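$ ./design --mode recover --in tokens.txt
reading tokens...
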């Protein structure tokens, strides 16, 4: 069973009972929409992603701190949390994880095999993002070690994962400017979720986490405050059998 709900993430999480969620996968705003420029298909475009990525009411630190406090409250004792970020915000999130009684398990480096070139030519091309995996300090995480080893030619899987950006089937109904590859999210779920888990994605966008949950028959709740992106998510979930999972190393 999967659910897609239009709501503010914080307002929705406030209504969840303590210790009810097994796994949280979160791709929160990075707050990079500062009216600068970026590169899309070799063309110079605005870096702005949308109003949801602009820092208007609270500071990024306050935003992430509030999210992590709520995440800690709703997670079960042995539940875990995955959070996406870039160099612009991941160190702040890492600091706040410790402040909020989380213990860091891994920092996964997601390497993009086809990154966007750097237009300024004054620094290295940004080709990676970081995914932090954390648990409650006194909890005991579930890790599907045998399956991850099997996926990696019977060798221990390392913390650098390489994928292209999203493939065509993942954006057939439309796309989100920070959409993550299905292959990435599916691996996260397979690595850290049991069949009877309840997964929460509080910033679900176009629904990749819910699609992965549907594929793996694990109950998943996806929250977003955008009607536009949720409509895309609903179409993807309904048509999940036609989603093509891209390559991941």
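writing sequence...
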């Amino acid at each position: 069973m999967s659910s897609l709900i239009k709501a503010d993430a914080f307002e929705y999480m406030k209504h969840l009972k303590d210790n009810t969620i097994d796994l949280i996968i979160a791709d929160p705003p990075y707050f990079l929409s500062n009216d600068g420029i970026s590169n899309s298909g070799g063309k110079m475009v605005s870096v702005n992603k949308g109003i949801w990525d602009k820092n208007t009411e609270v500071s990024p630190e306050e935003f992430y701190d509030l999210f992590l406090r709520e995440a800690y409250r709703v997670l079960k004792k042995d539940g875990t949390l995955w959070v996406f970020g870039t160099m612009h915000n991941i160190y702040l999130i890492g600091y706040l994880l410790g402040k909020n009684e989380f213990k860091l398990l891994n920092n996964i480096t997601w390497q993009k095999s086809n990154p966007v070139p750097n237009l300024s030519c004054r620094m290295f091309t940004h080709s990676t993002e970081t995914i932090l995996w954390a648990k409650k300090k006194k909890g005991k995480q579930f890790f599907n070690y045998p399956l991850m080893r099997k996926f990696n030619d019977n060798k221990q899987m390392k913390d650098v994962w390489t994928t292209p950006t999203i493939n065509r089937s993942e954006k057939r109904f439309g796309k989100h400017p920070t959409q993550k590859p299905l292959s990435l999210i599916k691996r996260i779920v397979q690595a850290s979720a049991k069949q009877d888990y309840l997964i929460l994605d509080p910033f679900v966008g176009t629904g990749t986490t819910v699609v992965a949950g549907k594929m793996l028959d694990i109950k998943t709740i996806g929250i977003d405050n955008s009607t536009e992106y949720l409509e895309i998510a609903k179409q993807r979930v309904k048509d999940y059998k036609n989603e093509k999972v891209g390559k991941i190393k």
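exit 0
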